[in-house]
């Protein structure tokens, strides 16, 4: 065992001596010392110079600005804006939705017939169409849809402002929506200012690319209709002649007293009011 330990120690000593000789041959010790000496030393930080306090002085301004009063930047409460009316100073009062007037089918058809007759007298120089009024046009929604084919053929293909000119020459602005083919903003004012009701028939004549001439046929202006009916009956009686005509006149004379009261009622326009 002792010999084995001595041989290990001798081998270890010899290995150390060999390694030392190799390091001396490679000059590693001197190289490591040279690297230590060549490393640059970090320079100390530069001292920070304190800033000089800024002297507050008046800003140079021109004489015109200097003479003006100083602006006040305090918050000033903004007064609510009043709703501006149009130039003719008409107020758009709210309509009583509980007292809506509904036109009968007979009255509606007669007003439309009169409007179509008026349209035929306008000629074909400018395109036109007839639009009967409904409750949604004159009371609730205030949206007026126009004929689709008429809009695609004659009106602009983008949203624009249209001018509505009534029979008195007064102008009203209304917003035309090309995608929905109808009048929206501004139509409410036109409807209220002209007291349009359910059953009225309007004739729209396009006198310019963005201008309508509007003719209003009132559904409850039915005096012409009643007068025309009486004239037709008298004309038929005179054309009958002879004994038959006299007999008819006698029968009509006998029934005048009985029919007098219903005739007065028929002359009045039929108005159906919505119940609350």
TrEMBL record:
TF-B3 domain mapped to chain residues: 129-220
Polar residues biased stretches: 29-42
InterPro entries xref list: B3_DNA-bd, DNA-bd_pseudobarrel_sf, REM16-like
SMART domains associated with the record: B3 (SM01019)
Keyword check for Glycoprotein: no
Region ranges (Disordered): 29-61, 224-276
Biased composition range(s): Basic residues: 267-276
Biased composition, class Acidic residues, residue ranges: 229-263
GO molecular function, one term: DNA binding
One GO cellular component term noted in the UniProt record for this chain: nucleus
Localization (cell): Nucleus
Cell inner membrane is among the record's keywords: no
Keywords, sorted A to Z: DNA-binding, Nucleus, Transcription, Transcription regulation
Domain of life: Eukaryota
PANTHER family (UniProt xref): B3 DOMAIN-CONTAINING PROTEIN OS06G0194400 (PTHR31391:SF99), B3 DOMAIN-CONTAINING PROTEIN OS11G0197600-RELATED (PTHR31391)
Name of the protein this chain belongs to: TF-B3 domain-containing protein
């Amino acid at each position: 065992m002792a010999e084995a330990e001595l041989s290990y120690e001798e081998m270890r000593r010899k290995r150390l001596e060999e390694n030392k000789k190799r390091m001396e041959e490679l000059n590693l010790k001197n190289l490591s010392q040279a690297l230590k000496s060549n490393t640059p030393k970090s320079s100390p930080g530069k001292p920070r110079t304190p800033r000089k306090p800024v002297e507050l002085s008046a800003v140079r301004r021109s004489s015109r600005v200097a003479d003006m009063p100083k602006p006040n930047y305090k918050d000033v409460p903004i007064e609510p804006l009043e709703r501006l009316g149009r130039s003719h100073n008409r107020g758009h009062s709210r309509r009583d939705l509980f007292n809506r007037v509904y036109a009968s089918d007979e009255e509606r058809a007669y007003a439309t017939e009169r409007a179509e007759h008026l349209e035929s007298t306008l000629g074909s120089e400018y395109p036109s169409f007839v639009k009967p009024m409904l409750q949604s046009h004159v009371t609730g929604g205030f949206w007026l849809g126009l004929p689709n084919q008429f809009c695609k053929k004659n009106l602009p293909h983008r949203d624009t402002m249209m001018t509505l000119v009534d029979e008195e020459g007064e102008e009203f602005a209304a917003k035309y929506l090309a995608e929905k083919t109808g009048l929206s903003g501004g139509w409410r004012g036109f409807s209220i200012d002209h007291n349009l009701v359910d059953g009225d028939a309007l004739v729209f004549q396009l006198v310019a690319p963005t201008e309508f001439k509007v003719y209003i046929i009132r559904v409850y202006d039915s005096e012409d209709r009643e007068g025309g009916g009486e004239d037709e009956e008298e004309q038929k009686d005179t054309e009958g002649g002879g004994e038959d005509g006299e007999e008819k006149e006698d029968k009509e004379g006998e029934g005048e007293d009985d029919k007098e009261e219903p005739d007065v009622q028929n002359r009045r326009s039929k108005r159906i009011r919505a119940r609350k």
